[in-house]
Structure formats: C-alpha cells, structure tokens
Amino acid sequence: MNYDLAAFDVDGTLIEGPDGMTVWEVLNLRFTGTPDHNKERYALYKAGKLSYAEWVELDVTGWRDAGATRDELVEAFAPLRMRDGVREALESLRDAGMRLVVISGTLDLMLNTVFPDHPFEDLYTNHIGFDESGRIDHWRATPFDMAGKAEALRALALRERIPLERCVFVGDSSNDVWIARAAGFSIAIDPRCPELESTVDAVVRSNDLRDILPHLGLT
Ligand SMILES: [Mg+2]
Fold first, then answer.
1. Residue 179 C-alpha to ligand 1 middle, in angstroms?
2. What's the gap in Å between 133 CA and the centre of ligand 1?
C-alpha cells in the first residue's frame, strides 16, 4: 500500500442531499424557507465581504431564531443519505492499514446522525451545541474549510509523522481544491467543480464510493 492516511470531505462525497444540496442548504431550506442564502453568502465570502465564521454565524443564528431545536435539526437531516458503498470502501481502506479522517465544512451533528458508526479517528468539522432544552446555544466555525482544509491535512500529517505524499484526499467541490493540491493523491468523486477536476489525480464518476478503490491499488 502506497498510502497511510485518507482524508474525506463529507457533503457531496460521503453524504448526499437532494438535488446536490449540502447540509447548510438543507437546513436553510427547512428553517428559513430557502436554500439560496448559501449562494448569496458564498459570493460575499469570495468577495471578501463576509468571513467564514460570520457566514457560519448567519446560517446557525437563522435556524436558532426560527426556533430550531436539536431534535428538529436531526429530523431535518432525513433527506440526507450516505453514498452507496461508503461503509464497505472505508472498511477496505482501514483493512489496508490506512488512518481515516474527515476534513470538512459540514456540521458534526449531521455526520454523527447520518453516519453514527463512522470509522474516522479525527473529525475536523463545524460544531453546533445546545442548551438543556435542546435549543441552539453555541457553535464553532471550523478554521479548516477552504484553504484551511489543506492546513488541517498538513498538521495531521506532521502529528502522525506521515509524509504528505502518503496521504490521500477524496472530495467533490470548490472548497476541496487546496487540500487536493496538498495531498499526495487526490480523487474527485462526481465533482461539481471544473477547477477541482483539473487539480485532482483521478476523477471518479459513480454513485458508489467503492469505485475509488482501484485508484488506490485496491479492489
Ligand atoms: Mg463537498
């Protein structure tokens, strides 16, 4: 095996929303009536008019102000589904001796709800917390989305004494371009971003995560 660690994106890679929606779009649709905030806020973020942390705060406070509880958030995750073959593919990688981690702009509650038995040793995601009555109480924007994804991979590789050349990354979207460049081998699965497609070492068009395995020397 040429690789020791595999890092995964979540939304669009391991877990799919209806019409390609991320967890943010699913929750904005459920609690504010429209998924369109995401495109507007992404445009402001790209223009330097909104920080990532401010963007997270706008979304989370939107749900909070709509009265969303933990139970309602969990119910709202119902349309989110795991991609076919996720458990089997991850098991194959782990059996081959790889460390498995998530480096994602997703929400920890969603990953832990939709994939409670996940095998990841480290989770770099956004965090949301609740008070005793289940109302949204606090949140923590991850510093490890966008360019920060690459920083998280570099830090992990350093901590685990694994050369970056022996690290794999699998993602699908524009926030994955930096980490795809940093990883020794990168795969785009059903990519939604031409820039990512032209950055990665392999493009896999499939609804089944097991189709990444041949690219890593596994079957
Ligand atoms: Mg994604």
1. 12
2. 31
Tell how far CA 143 is from the center of its chain: 13
CA 42–ligand 1 middle distance (angstroms): 14
pTM of the predicted model over 0.90: yes
| Mean pLDDT, contiguous 10-residue spans, the chain (219 residues) | 94 96 96 94 96 97 97 98 98 97 98 98 98 97 96 97 98 97 98 96 98 95
Instruction: Give residue 75's identity as a one-letter amino acid code.
Output: E
C-alpha 9 to ligand 1 mean position (Å): 6
Cα 111 to Cα 22, 66, 208: the distances in Å are 12, 22, 18
| Contacts with 133 (C-beta within 8 Å, 6 or more apart), sequence order | 69
